[in-house]
Amino acid sequence: MTNINEIAKQMVADGKGILAADESSGTIKKRFDGINVDSSEENRMNYRRILLESKEAMENYISGVILFDETIRQSNSAGEKLVDIIKKSGTLPGIKVDMGAKSLAKMQDETVTEGLDGLRERLQEYSELGAKFAKWRAVISISEKNPSHLCIDANAHALARYAALCQESEIVPIVEPEVLMDGSHSIQKCYDVTKKTLLKVFDNLLLHNVDLKGICLKPNMIIGGSENSQRSTSKEIAQMTVDCFKECVPEEVPGIVFLSGGQSEIEATENLNEINKIENTPWKLSFSYGRALQSSALKAWQGKLENEDLCSKAFTHRAKMNSLASEGSWSNQQEG
Question: Rounded to two decimals, what is the model's pTM?
Answer without folding.
Answer: 0.97
